[in-house]
Amino acid sequence: MASVDLLRAIEREQMKEDLPEITPGDTVRLHFRIVEGDRERTQVFEGLVMGMRGSQSNRTITIRRIGAHGVGVERTFPLHSPRMESIEVLRHSHVRRAKLYFLRKRQGKSARLRQKR
Question: Among candidates 37, 45, 24, 42, which has minimal Cα distance to 113?
Fold first, then answer.
């Protein structure tokens, strides 16, 4: 049992405490550090939170944005990664599902979500 306690302690140590409350349907702006060769830069990924999975330090979120020429781009980010610099919630939307995969088939007005007030 000592090894389990050790793993939990290491896991707790690596978790971030300054994360905002994020739920599916939120529009977020995520700043992620990218390593290219020997250089590092921060890339901003802004989009809709499609779903969340995992728990504690293994928590990941899937964010979808509409890229160039109307092509949808989805990326999955580990929430407690040391490469994630910051995340800010731009707006909350009213949703009734935990996973918003149905939005992949929609575009234009039918892909909009009602904003929470």
Answer: 24
2-105 is a CATH 3.20.20.140 domain: no
Q: Return phi, psi of residue 51, to 5°.
A: -175, 165
Kindly list the domain boundaries of the chain, sorted by start residue. 2-105
Terminal CA-CA length for the chain: 47
Distance in angstroms (rounded) separating the CA atoms of residues 37 and 12: 31
- The string of pLDDT tens digits covering residues 46-98 is 999 999 999 888 899 999 999 999 899 999 999 999 999 999 999 999 999 99
